[in-house]
Amino acid sequence: MAEVRVPTLGESVTEATIATWFKQPGDTVAVDEMLCELETDKVTVEVPASVAGVLSEIIAAEGETVGVDALLAMITEGATADTPAPPAAAPVVASASDAGVKNAPSAEKLMADTGVTPDQVTGTGRDGRIMKEDVQKTLAAPAPTPAPAAAPRAPVAAEQSAREERVKMTRLRQTIARRLKDSQNTAAMLTTFNEVDMTAVMALRNEYKELFLKKHGVKLGFMSFFTKACCHALREVPEVNAEIDGTDIVYKSYVNMGIAAGTPTGLVVPVINDVDAMSFATIEKTIAEKGKRARDGQLTMAEMQGGTFTISNGGVYGSLMSAPILNPPQSGILGMHKIQDRPMAIKGEVVIRPMMYLALSYDHRIVDGKGAVTFLVRVKEALEDPRRLLMDL
Question: Which range marks the domain in which residue 231 is found?
Fold first, then answer.
């Protein structure tokens, strides 16, 4: 018998929900064939078969929440669907006492005196043994602030309830909801707006797009221009590329750019590390590759961590203006929008220009209004005259 267990899910991720079983008991499986799909806070993880044989038993059903290394199923190695698999033994979960792990007597006494239970304490001794210091650390930790109770749902008439459908939120959607609300509750969020004339960028793109595609094998889009413009502005206004850590401000000498991407299961933000050191071609290739992986649900947790600034492009969906929400612990996010022809007064004449509204949401605890406006003006200037990017002006 071979065990199928939950794989390592990534940094800080301790549990997942079983979304789909692709195989059922009695089915033949091949090595590396996908057995089930797990849904974590951010990504979908596929669990392959480590051996060939017959799936003899499913331990954890769809919808169940499981921890790292939890037992998912059993495979009868070498069997086929025509050969009945022997019944699988029921899994036995060993407790700490079964494994011979005894907590320190002083820790046991302190827990008994204070009412602390072992499951509230993280043991640091050998094999997870709880020491007196571990109990003291638990007692000294501040009590968690209970989350405010959700507002009760308004009553629905009986004749309307039959026309509704109740679907449990996915773990990804729950995490999105929690993080966005936490961002609103934590940061002193403010948004400033400007507009940019896209004439120069569009002309430059049209002039070189065929040559760019031929040489680099990727299309020249707008995102590389905006990414370069943001990196240029972040050098002048470094607090937009910083974060608050307690009473400290942590300034970053690099730019890890988050590029928000919509997927069928929700919004994800893959991060491009050290984007400030990349060429236009490398940026476009990386964005295309990350976007495909996001849509296919193949992003890893590592690919969505460590961002210092984010760009969100609501314009691809037709949004004309919005105020994007910060992606904590970042202090700034740029919102791009739809390019729309509008009449503009240029040197005393009314002309039609392709215009885009820009929005910068920022954490006012660390970024002052002057810095936010300066950042957005520098982005605007770089896009309206891309030569500035070449001369670092």
Answer: 190-391
